[in-house]
């Protein structure tokens, strides 16, 4: 019988250099492309996403997907989720490095009866997030569980639709 320790997963992305300090990312198993470039703080123009943005995006989106998985296992739904991620870069032993990551996840539940399940899922997520567990920067969670009925969140989804963004 195989267990979790026997599993291996591989992910692959393709980066093509375009010009100057810009490139484009793609993957055969993901939709669309992402333009990337060096951020202004390191000599780039700063319009496309930077590796630093992508790094923090990986941490916050993994936190979200891990939380949603635990919510599903616990058989409850949330009304909305958002998460701000702030990373600090410092020079450590002569090299730039992310030293701390602060995550500010906000989990919105429909009513107070879901708080206990939401809290349990949050605690499990703090321990189990794949990306957070894979980086050596100190990660601090400033999590909040808030009450918000679905109707409030649907307005937000409509606003995204108006901006032609994918959720």
Number of strands: 7
Helix content: 25-40%
Major pleated sheet: 4 strands, mixed
Question: CATH fold name of the largest domain, please?
Answer: GMP Synthetase, Chain A, domain 3
**Overall shape:** globular
Do you know the CATH architecture of the largest domain?
2-Layer Sandwich
Please give the oligomerization state of what you see. Answer: single chain
CATH class annotation of the largest domain: Alpha Beta
CATH superfamily of the largest domain: K homology (KH) domain
Low-confidence stretches: 162-167
| Radius of gyration, CA atoms, in whole angstroms | 18 Å
Summarize the structure in words:
The protein has helices at 51-73, 115-128, 130-134, 150-162, and strands at residues 14-19, 22-26, 34-37, 80-92, 95-109, 138-141, 144-147. With 167 residues, it is α/β, with parallel strands linked by helices. Strands 4, 5, 6 and 7 form a four-stranded mixed beta sheet that branches. The protein has a three-stranded antiparallel beta sheet with strand order 1-2-3, with no helix packed on it. A hairpin with a 2-residue loop joins strand 4 and strand 5. Helix 1 (51-73) crosses helix 2. It starts with 13 loop residues before the first strand and ends in a 5-residue tail after the last helix. Residues 162-167 have low confidence and may be disordered.
């Amino acid at each position: 019988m195989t267990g979790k320790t026997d599993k291996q997963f591989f992910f692959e992305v393709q980066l093509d250099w375009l010009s100057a300090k810009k490139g484009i990312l793609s993957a055969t198993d993901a939709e669309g492309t992402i333009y990337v470039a060096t951020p202004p703080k390191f000599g780039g123009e700063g319009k496309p996403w930077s590796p630093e943005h992508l790094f923090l995006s990986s941490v916050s989106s993994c936190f979200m997907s891990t939380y949603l998985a635990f919510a599903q296992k616990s058989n409850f739904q949330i009304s909305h989720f958002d998460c701000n991620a702030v990373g600090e870069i410092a020079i450590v032993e002569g090299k730039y490095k992310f030293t701390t990551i602060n995550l500010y996840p906000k989990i919105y539940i429909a009513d107070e009866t879901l708080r206990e399940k939401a809290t349990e899922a949050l605690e499990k997520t703090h321990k189990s997030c794949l990306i957070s567990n894979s980086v050596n920067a100190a990660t601090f969670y400033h999590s909040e569980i808030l009450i918000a009925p679905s109707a409030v969140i649907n307005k937000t989804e409509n606003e995204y639709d108006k901006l032609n963004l994918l959720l």
